Amino acid sequence: MLTNKVTENLNSDNKFYKKTSHVFVFLEVFVHEGGIQSYVKDIFRAYGGLNTDYQAKVFVLRDSPDNANPLKSENLKFYSFKTQSPQMGRIKMVAALLKCLLQERPQHVFCGHIKLAVLIQSLCQPLGIPYTVLTYGKEVWEPLKSKERNALIWASKIWTISRYSRDRACAANGLDPNMVKMLPCTIDGDKFTPGTKQQELVEKYNLTDAKVLMTVARLWSGDIYKGVDVTIRALPQIAQVFPEVKYLVIGRGDDQPRLAQLAKDLDISDRVVFAGFVPTEQLIAHYRLADAYIMPSQEGFGIVYLEAMACGVPVLSGDDDGSADPLQDGKLGWRVPHRDPNAVAAACIEILTGNDQRCDGQWLREQAIALFGIDAFQQQLQDLL
Fold this sequence. Notes:
By secondary structure, the chain is an alpha/beta fold. It has helices spanning 4-10, 14-19, 35-48, 86-104, 117-127, 146-153, 163-173, 199-204, 228-241, 256-265, 280-287, 303-310, 341-353, 361-372, 374-384, and strands at 22-26, 56-60, 76-80, 108-111, 131-134, 157-160, 180-182, 211-216, 245-250, 272-276, 292-295, 315-318, 334-336.
């Protein structure tokens, strides 16, 4: 049964109560940090800057009222349902959501994860309220359960972040590509900016006079696809041309001992620097240490490539993933077979040589922001709505 507190919250602002245009439903937004959570926050920031005629309610299953919500917007109102009992939290959210749909009949419901799609379909379809499912990457790249697949098929639209993610999801689940719309990741060009290498960090990581390759990635044994091991294997070849090369690896996880051992086996331990976890607010200073951002990976999109480019740093990615979009099919960076150390080495040597337009930091930054900056993202969201 819906608690009195939630009922009071839903009815606390009569003006808002009558004008709800959209409803968003997510698993979590503020309780954890991650790529999906950052992307969702960008959606809300963009939504908050749209015409105030738009009014939205946001239902978040795993956030609690204690989670800080830094998004101050007149046209967004958040409701959180985390309790000690996950099942009870879900019941409370369903009750509050159903009440909202019955009383307010919003124009559209946006389902923030495939794990919520069956629920959203079951509530919206009988009421004739159209819904859109947001997808990101791996969670829809393999065949889904029949109920989840049906929830996608019956959706008004599906949003995703890249052409690659669209194509894999459609191939795996028999979806019509025409119903999938693009809302790619965005980059804050005012936050991620070029700058000089911070001497304190140069000394901390022993990078004086070094040519610095850098990767930001989780070092989990289940995430070998990030390609840190491939880049380590490429270092001996790169060092033949650039003896001063070093590889700065930012991130932590249970795969670090294997990677450190690999560097030792290749006799290049002195070239590989494991920086460990770096807080988000310190990442920009670390990007500025890099002469090239190297991640031969398999990404749904790869926001880190945009972050590096906005800081004026050339980038290398894998050639069979969603990074085709931020790298514009190779126009803005190097794309190589993601498990090929020889290809990574050859591309890194080209980048460090610096004769290609893709090494022009100012040009690279301008291109990235024009295509994926906040203004472009907000316009895309407006068009989709």
